[in-house]
Structures are given as C-alpha cells and as structure tokens.
Amino acid sequence: MSNSKFLKAATKTDFTGTKVATGAAICLIAAYGMRCYYPTFAKIVFSRRSKKATQLQGGQTKSSDKHQESPASGSPAHSSEPQKYDKANPNVDQNFYKQLRYLIKIIIPNICCKEFGILSLHTISLIIRTFLSIYVAQLDGSIVQTIVQRNVTRFVVQLAKWILLAVPATFINSLIRFLESKLALVFRTRLVKHAYEKYFDSQTYYRVSNLDSRLSNADQCLTEDITMFTSSLAHLYSHLTKPLLDVALMSFTLYRLAQSRGASSKTPTIIAMVVILITAKILRAVSPKFGKLVAEEAHRKGHLRFMHSRIITNAEEIAFYNGHQIERSLLTRCYSALVKQMDLIFYKRLWYIMLEQFLMKYVWSASGLIMVAVPIITATGIREDGSKVEDDDDGGVSERTRYFTTARNLLISSADAIERMMSSYKEITELAGYTSRVSQMFEVFEDVKLGKYQRNTVTKQKPIKTNFERISGSLVQKGVVIDTESTIIIENLPIITPNGDIIVQSLSLKIEDGMHLLITGPNGCGKSSLFRILNGLWPVYGGKLCKPPPTSMFYIPQRPYMSIGILRDQVIYPDSVTDMKAKGITDEDLMNILKIVHLDNIVHREGGWQAECDWKDVLSGGEKQRMGMARTFYHRPKFALLDECTSAVSIDVESKIYLSLKAAGITLLTITHRPTLWKFHTHLLQFDGEGGWRMEELDTTARLTLNEEKQKLEHQLAGMPRMQERLRELCTLLGEDSVLLSSGDIPIPSEDDLAAYEFKNE
Ligand SMILES: Nc1ncnc2c1ncn2[C@@H]1O[C@H](COP(=O)(O)OP(=O)(O)OP(=O)(O)O)[C@@H](O)[C@H]1O
Predict the structure, then answer these.
(1) Polar residues bias located where (predicted)?
(2) For residue 529, how far is its CA from the centre of ligand 1 (angstroms)?
(3) Is the pLDDT score of 16 beyond 60?
C-alpha cells in the first residue's frame, strides 16, 4: 500500500475506506471469538448446507432438475444427450467429504511422501507471507508517523527497511504460485498413476466400456477430470488457507492494537457478526448447485470428445459411406448440449456473483463504516488494565495516524481474506463436482474388477433362474473358473451377453491338446462370445470352466490390432524388445516367421525393422491379418483362438499358414465360414443360432460331399424365380395358361434343364 494511497484514504471516504470498515468488522469479530466464529462460519458454509439441502429437497432439487433437463428436453439435442452414468448429486455434504478423504488418501499416502513435503512447504510459505503482510502494515504505519513527525532520518531508515522487505515478499509471492502449480502437478501424477494401475488391472479398460454402462467416457475422466480435480484442490488449499491465516493473525494483531489504544469494540463486533451471519445465510440459500452443474458439463465435454474420437477411428468407413452430414449433425448436437450446459452455468454465475459482490462489498462496507467509527469515537485513552495511553508532544496526532494506517492496512487485508473465503464456496461446490466424477470413476473400476456390472439396457430374453440369478437387475456370477495345464473343459456353461441375453443356455465340451476344433454357426449365434468367455473378458455366470492360463492361449481377431511403434513391435506384440531378447528370439527368427505368412517383403518395403509408421493404414487388410498370424508363430501358444482371422488372406497362403500352425504343435480353435479350412480340424462345434449346439468328430470328406450337394441345390433353386417369371411372360404372349403356374407345383429343374435354358436364352 503506497503512502499516497493512504493519504487519499485518510482524507476522504472512498471505496478503499469502506474496505477498511469492512475489515474492521471482520477483524474485531475474529479478535473476540476466533474459536467460536470460524467453526460457525465453516458450519454455515459447509455442513448446514447439506442439512438445508435435505429440507429443501423438494423445491430446490426440482428447480435444479428443471435446469438439468432443459438443454435436452424437446430439443434436437435430446437424442445426442450423453447417458447419465450416475444419479448422484454432487453436493458439499457427507458424501463429498467421504469421497474427498478417499482421494486425498491416494494423493497423500503418508507424511513421508513428496506430496506432503510440497504441501508443508506451501503452508510454510503462506504463513511467512501472512507475517510479512503484518510487518509491512506496521512498517507502513511507522513511515506515515515519521512523515507526520517530519523526522527525515527515521523516514529514510524505515523506507530502506521497506525496500529491503520487498525482496523476500516478492519471492514468497512467486514461490506460493510456483508451489501451488507444483502441488497440483504432483497430486495429478499420483492420481493418474493410481488410475492407470486400476484401469489396466484385470482387463478393466475392456470391462468398463463393454460390460458396464456407468462410465461412457473413461478417457475424459482419466485426463480432464483428474486434472481439474487436482488443480481445483491445490488452488482451493491456498485460496482457503491463506485467508484463514490472514484473518487469524491479523485480527489478533489488530485486537492487540485496539486494546493498546483503550478503544471499545463490543457493540461493533455484535453488529458485524449479525451482518456476516445474515450474508452467509442468504448466499447459502440462493447458491446454485455448482457441483452438479460442473459435473454435468464435464460429462458433456467427455461425450463430445468421445464423438470426435469415433470419427477419427472410423474416418475411412464414414468417408466411403459419405456419412459426413449425419456425423456433423451428431457432433453439432453434442456441442449444442455442451453449450447449453455452459450457458446455464454462466447465467447462474452472473446472478450469484452479482449478489455476492453486492453483499460482500457494499453491505459489508456500509456496516464497516460503523465499525471503524465506533473505536475512534469511543476511545477513552485508558487501557483494559487501567493504565493510561501515553501520547507524544504533538497531542497524539502522529501516534493516532500510525495506529490508523497500520489498522487500515490490516483491515484491508483481512477484508480481502474474508471475501476470498466466502467466494471460495462456489469453488468448493465445483470441487465437489470433480471429486464426485473422479471418485465414481474409481468406484466403477473397483466394481468391474469384482465383476459387479451395471447396464442400462433392457434384456430381450428372460434369464433362467436355475443357472444364474439377478440381484437388483444385475446378473450374479455363480460360475466356477479353474486354471488347468493343457485342457479346456467346459461344463454347463451359459453364454450370456453383457445385456443379459442368453445366447446358449448350457454348453459342455472338452478340448485336449492336439484336438483341432472348428466352430461354425449362423451370425450372432455366440461363436466369438465363447472366445470372450475363454479369454476371461466376459463373466462366467454359471457352470464350470477349466482353462489354461492366458499365456497359453492366443486370440487373433478378424481385424488385428496394430500397435504404435516400429515394424518389429508389430510382430512381437504385446511383447517388448526386452521380452523378445529374454526369449532368445532374433530378427532373423522374426524374418523366418514373416516368411511363413508371406509377409517378409514388407521388411524391405517399409525400410527395415526400425521403420515406424501408422501400421493400421500402411498395411492392407490381408497384410494385417497375416501379421496377426505371424504373432501366433512368435508366441507359440498351446491354443490359438482364430476368429475368422484369415478371411482376407488368399486360400493358398491360408492353407500354408494352417499347416505350419499344426506343425508347430499349436491346437486350433477356428471360427470360419470357409470350407477350405475344414480339413485342418478334427472336431466340430456347431451352434444352431437358437441356443442349441452339437459337438462331434469332423468327417471332412462327408461334410464336403454334403456341402457340394448343398451348393448344387442352391444353384438350381437360384434359377427358379427367373424361370417362373419367363413362363409367365410366355403365357401372356401366347394367351395361354400353364398348369404349373396355376397349381404352384413346379418341379425342381435338373442341371441339364438349367443348362439348356441358359443356352437357349443366350
Ligand atoms: N458387448 C456386447 N454387448 C451386448 N451384446 C453383445 C456384445 N457383444 C456381442 N453381443 C451379442 O452377442 C451375440 C453373439 O455375438 P457373437 O459376436 O458371439 O456372434 P458370432 O456368432 O461370433 O457372430 P458372427 O459370425 O457374425 O461373428 C450377438 O447377438 C451380439 O449382439
């Protein structure tokens, strides 16, 4: 605070003057009842809100719900409305404290950790800053006193002290900002590490998006929400701690100062308390549910991001379909939904901040004017202990000026501090929103790991009670999973989708080493689902499943995943180069593997093993499938689960690959629609698409004969509609009837008939 500003303030009542008054009110209250006031304040701001919220649930909740619904209802945005994964209402209540405690335990696991060290350093800096402010206020008073006394020597000395003090003061200010950012970053790092651990444990990343519908955009929670939560927490810590320290220490200093002047302060204190309590009550009553609002905003942001990532992933398909119009309209709807939510928040903030400023700046200032006047008017010059206040030769003018300047500076700082504390409330409610989202993300991670899934979908079929049950709409896992060495045994296992639809009621089979199983059936009959269960992706809701560990089974899908990295990484995925070396495999071995799948040419074509590009786009569909097969030769599992993984590979290369797989001692479980692959299998599992299945030894010759007959028949029947149509035309031309057309009894034409017919028409 400069002296010119002080002189201005001392000579006329301006806005700064009113701040002095405000500060006086606050500090006198603080001086009288620090112990009882702040708990009351905290209670008003934090605890009582939840009580009131419960009382007002009917009215308040309804109104906020209306706001929540408004962006979607009756608007085109409705269809793009993100799914609400939870009905929890983030408020500053017991639940918020519970969630915050849970997250704080993660980010500060013990007092010896780095996070606690930075937090302590931050706290110390805040304390030092407060002491420096007090000292600066007192120094300011002394400088003004020397000016009034016209004592040049003392003035120069005090001014030098002032300048010297500026060095540590500015450093501490800068340090506080640095430590706040650092704190947010270390909190974030700790939380992200923990989240990644959970996300990649027990295939949680798959389960979260495929088996559970509560977290529709985990990527948003793992990035944006964690960042917002940690920066909001770190910011709030310094935003609340510093004002609290400021008010506590400055009030105490001011109280001591007032006592030394023998001023009365009881009546103004009571007035100030009443004003502050009423302000807090009003603000609490009208405060919008910022927590709920920002949580919804974050959710919509996540949905928008999800829609963008879908377009990037499926860009080629969309482009082929010319689907840009519909995709753009979907994106626009999502964006509009987000804008509506943001608008709602801005609008609510506009009125809330207006009221907050009105009460805290102007109403408080008006009351403060009374507070600052009372101690000066009622000053008796006799202290509480009965001693008299000694004045200087100038009749006490310089001493009163010093007192006024010091008090004024302390009061301004305290007023700022209390204003910051009060305005922090909306930041706390916003923190409640982020806390709710982040802690719910961890809750979902925990649940899916334990197999507790929640889906918003309606099942198409009724589950059968004997094998599996539902508790509150969720299927209960009653199946047994046992690890075996080299045999797959399935007993009375139901195949049930994540929606709860039963595809196969009870499946029993045994697959031993060297027993190559062909799996067939119509689309959607549950072939791939069986693989999902074998891999542990889908839960076992009933029966018994004995299977070798995941390292003994290798799954190759129809669209093999290409990882980010160099060419070598594609062949050895998901191993790293270190794993490869540990297994004693060299680049030469990899080249031999690529030769088996007829892909060795790409090493030269793409620029060697170290070549790095977007393999998803660089390799053709067939090449990607061959790469998938190459991985099987690299990993050499006991069982290879092949899910139509060679559908884009030429038949001759496919046959060579299958022969090599068998030669390598790998047991095949193949889903395919190609009869050319039958000969590589010994057994057949055939689903009928209606829940039934059949397991038998595969007689390829007999099956091929049947297949030939089927194809012949299909070919013959394919000509029927054309022949019928021609017969009708001839009848019309000749003006005659046909017995065959009128009776509908049309014989199936022979191959020769068809050939003759085709010939004639040509
Ligand atoms: N994540 C999922 N959530 C809900 N239902 C699913 C899920 N995945 C598959 N389904 C359903 O399970 C059923 C069986 O799917 P599956 O992928 O096993 O079929 P399939 O026999 O392999 O068919 P296709 O020959 O077409 O590949 C389908 O009706 C499908 O809709």
Answers:
(1) 70-80
(2) 6
(3) no
